Amino acid sequence: MIVFKYIHDISHYLHSLQQQGKKTGFVPTMGALHQGHISLIESAHTKCDIVISSIFVNPTQFNDPGDFDKYPITIEKDIDMLEKAGCDVLFLPSVKEMYPEGLTDGKQYELGYLELVLDGAYRPGHFQGVCRVVEKLLRIVHPDKMLLGQKDYQQCMVLAKMVETERLKTIIIICPTKREADGLAMSSRNVRLTNAFRTKAPLIYQCLQSIKKEIKPGDISHVKQQAIEKLVAAGFKPDYIEVANAQTLELLHTWDGKTALVALAAVFAGEVRLIDNLVF
Ligand code: PAF
Fold this sequence. Notes:
The chain is α/β, with parallel strands linked by helices. The chain has two domains: about 1-175, HUPs (Rossmann fold), CATH 3.40.50.620; about 190-280, Pantoate--beta-alanine Ligase, Chain: A,domain 2, CATH 3.30.1300. The protein contains eleven helices and eleven strands. It has helices at about 5-20, 35-45, 65-70, 75-85, 95-100, 120, 125-140, 155-165, 195-200, 205-215, 220-235, and strands spanning about 1-5, 25-30, 50-55, 90, 145-150, 170-175, 220, 235-245, 255, 260-270, 270-280. The strands form three sheets. The chain has a six-stranded parallel sheet with strand order 1-4-3-2-5-6, sandwiched between helices. It has a three-stranded antiparallel sheet with strand order 8-10-11, with helices on one face. Helix 8 links the parallel strand 5 and strand 6 (about 170-175). Helix 7 packs across helix 8 (about 155-165) and helix 10 packs antiparallel against helix 11 (about 220-235). The chain is globular and about 55 Å long. Pantoate binds near residues 61, 134 and 155.
């Protein structure tokens, strides 16, 4: 695996490969890698000739500076995992390399409704920061495909919109969420859970499964409310438990029995904010 720190060098290298007709797949990450990331690398391998990943803890997407400071950094282990998974190229830029213009004067993306609901509402500015860094990365790497995990459902929709409005040529591929044996969605944040919350954390996915099982056409507020009550009783602090139209992310209070749905959760387990979702 070749590691690049500078935009000029990686651009030059990838350009020559792309000139030779090599198809490239890109997996952007913030490091602290787990099997979920590795499954994206493996999937990229089956679809592309060259697999590129990036590790960059993006300061502009953290609405809470404390969360940024506590974000786990495990670079040596990450490099080892990427190498073992067969990643060909790693981009490891500094903040100065990615943001020579500074962190504050970002361009504003028109994300509409997607930015007003769920994590858009609870984490102001978060998706603007995600779009800002991913647009930069895509303009550096120019991948044919970018692979993203379904765990970040809203992020996938936001990035699909950004790619469309910025007229980028990359195709987004959304891959299934990887889970621990007990159902907890894999996340870089899981290592920060206390033992007590780690033991209880599978309840989040269980609540999403109960929503899927119990939802009936008509009013759906009670299934959401039951999930919130179960989580609160177990000591979690939910930001939201919602059911939305899986295509548009419009939040629903009633269901017609036909529309494809996604149930979404964002829950504080102590100081650690976990998200998960289930499409049905
Ligand atoms: O999902 C993430 O890890 C980040 O939001 C991303 C897409 C790498 C952008 O910083």
